[in-house]
Amino acid sequence: LRDKTPFITFVLGGPGSGKGTQCEKIAETFGFTHLSAGDLLRKEMNSNSEERTTILNIIQDGKIVPSAVTVKLIMKAMESSDSDKFLIDGFPRTEENRIAFEQIIGLEPKAVLFFDCPEEEMVQRVLNRNQGRVDDNIDTVKKRLKVFETLSLPVIDYYSKKGKLHKINAVGDADEIFEQVRAVFDAPEV
Ligand code: UP5
Ligand code: MG
């Protein structure tokens, strides 16, 4: 049993906007545990899980894995950690994801970061990454961008209306971007 409600921050932004890079810095500086939904799904995809083929096909097509699968993985990761501060990177990506998390986990984020980056920059970063991700090719990147625009922007808009959104200009040097992020976590209301 936990004696404290976990401090949850959702970290959102398009493909290649720098979520993972900035989460590492936040985790290091502010002591959060970094959970990347994409990393959890890729790990599941490379295991002998029953879901592995479904996940691979969806990721290759730039679509969204069913909420039940992703929320279960996030919940398992949270439960197996003794941390009470989590950065959830790349989730929720749809309104349905958001509602599933609220219903299954029963928690809401204290803050939501949005890394705002122009499309051309995101495409360049993803295509330059070269780490063998099955979705880092021009065709899948175009699909990921489309999904981001149609399904993920409404989630960002939802948190903006709730007054929880912190929009970060994600263009420039990673350390400069982190200075904007630092200001969010240094502020007393967060
Ligand atoms: N880089 C970083 N910052 C830079 C900077 N300031 N200047 C120049 N370069 C910079 O960065 C991307 C690349 O850019 C790296 O090479 C980095 O060095 C460089 P990174 O920090 O990795 O950006 P990030 O936003 O994390 O990009 P990523 O590609 O991981 O974002 P996605 O949201 O596309 O990927 P994710 O892993 O979250 O999801 C992948 C897929 O999984 C989804 O498309 C979807 O199919 C599936 N998924 C779900 O279905 N449900 C989920 O909940 C989550 C994922
Ligand atoms: Mg990432």
TrEMBL record:
<keyword id="KW-0808">Transferase</keyword>
<keyword id="KW-0665">Pyrimidine biosynthesis</keyword>
<feature type="binding site">
    <location>
        <begin position="63"/>
        <end position="65"/>
    </location>
    <ligand>
        <name>a ribonucleoside 5'-phosphate</name>
    </ligand>
</feature>
<feature type="binding site">
    <location>
        <begin position="90"/>
        <end position="93"/>
    </location>
    <ligand>
        <name>a ribonucleoside 5'-phosphate</name>
    </ligand>
</feature>
<feature type="binding site">
    <location>
        <begin position="16"/>
        <end position="21"/>
    </location>
    <ligand>
        <name>ATP</name>
    </ligand>
</feature>
<feature type="binding site">
    <location>
        <position position="129"/>
    </location>
    <ligand>
        <name>ATP</name>
    </ligand>
</feature>
<keyword id="KW-0067">ATP-binding</keyword>
<comment type="function">
    <text>Catalyzes the phosphorylation of pyrimidine nucleoside monophosphates at the expense of ATP. Plays an important role in de novo pyrimidine nucleotide biosynthesis. Has preference for UMP and CMP as phosphate acceptors.</text>
</comment>
<dbReference type="GO" id="GO:0006207">
    <property type="term" value="P:'de novo' pyrimidine nucleobase biosynthetic process"/>
</dbReference>
<feature type="binding site">
    <location>
        <position position="42"/>
    </location>
    <ligand>
        <name>a ribonucleoside 5'-phosphate</name>
    </ligand>
</feature>
<dbReference type="GO" id="GO:0005524">
    <property type="term" value="F:ATP binding"/>
</dbReference>
<keyword id="KW-0418">Kinase</keyword>
<dbReference type="GO" id="GO:0005737">
    <property type="term" value="C:cytoplasm"/>
</dbReference>
<feature type="binding site">
    <location>
        <position position="133"/>
    </location>
    <ligand>
        <name>a ribonucleoside 5'-phosphate</name>
    </ligand>
</feature>
<dbReference type="GO" id="GO:0005634">
    <property type="term" value="C:nucleus"/>
</dbReference>
<keyword id="KW-0547">Nucleotide-binding</keyword>
<keyword id="KW-0963">Cytoplasm</keyword>
<feature type="binding site">
    <location>
        <position position="144"/>
    </location>
    <ligand>
        <name>a ribonucleoside 5'-phosphate</name>
    </ligand>
</feature>
<comment type="similarity">
    <text>Belongs to the adenylate kinase family. UMP-CMP kinase subfamily.</text>
</comment>
<dbReference type="GO" id="GO:0006221">
    <property type="term" value="P:pyrimidine nucleotide biosynthetic process"/>
</dbReference>
<dbReference type="GO" id="GO:0016776">
    <property type="term" value="F:phosphotransferase activity, phosphate group as acceptor"/>
</dbReference>
<feature type="binding site">
    <location>
        <position position="97"/>
    </location>
    <ligand>
        <name>CMP</name>
    </ligand>
</feature>
<dbReference type="GO" id="GO:0019205">
    <property type="term" value="F:nucleobase-containing compound kinase activity"/>
</dbReference>
<keyword id="KW-0539">Nucleus</keyword>
<protein>
    <recommendedName>
        <fullName>UMP-CMP kinase</fullName>
        <ecNumber>2.7.4.14</ecNumber>
    </recommendedName>
</protein>
<comment type="subunit">
    <text>Monomer.</text>
</comment>
<feature type="binding site">
    <location>
        <position position="172"/>
    </location>
    <ligand>
        <name>ATP</name>
    </ligand>
</feature>
<dbReference type="GO" id="GO:0009123">
    <property type="term" value="P:nucleoside monophosphate metabolic process"/>
</dbReference>
